[in-house]
Input
Amino acid sequence: TPYVVESEGFVGYLTPRYATRLRDWRDRTVFRLQAEEIKSISVQYPGKPDESFVVSRSEDGQFSVTSTPKIMHLPEGLNKHRAESYMHFFGNINCEGYLNGLSDNDTTIKTAPKHSSIDVVTVKGEKKHVDVYWMAVNKRSKNQKKSDIDSTSQQYDSDRMYAIINDFKDTVMIQQLTFHNLFRKAHEFYRKDIVPQKSPAQSEGKNGQLGR
Output
């Protein structure tokens, strides 16, 4: 359906503001689920069973985290607060853009090592599956040069990765900044929360008054 479009005060060419490529207009949502909508979350790292885990919530609201016996028998026990908090990370997770139709796309994904797979099951029984793959270092990568500070492998991009979403129909680019909270490790759910200790100077405000 054609429309006549006007932008008051604008003199120029409007085409850049109205891209005609379908992938530029598509919804970039990967996960948009409230914590109370989620029944279970599975994060599996290939070849790393001690890092993989499943966070579940029972009908009576009790949380559990399943992993290998080595992890589940850690002396500090399950941190239920962390398990509950983890479900809040899935409220607004988006991809950077769609890669469908790009030349050599299939070959790139087939040769890329798999980073992880994420499966989410809602309380209504709906399922969402995402496969995540490493992206090789390229001309856009910030970690092209070796750094003594960054111990990340120089073989892979430190900021971006590939993902397959929407029932294996779409290939997208994702950002580590957006997904890093999802990429937790099993042992993190069996550790106590660290509460920073304030020094006397931090605890007291000016004139000896207690600070916030």
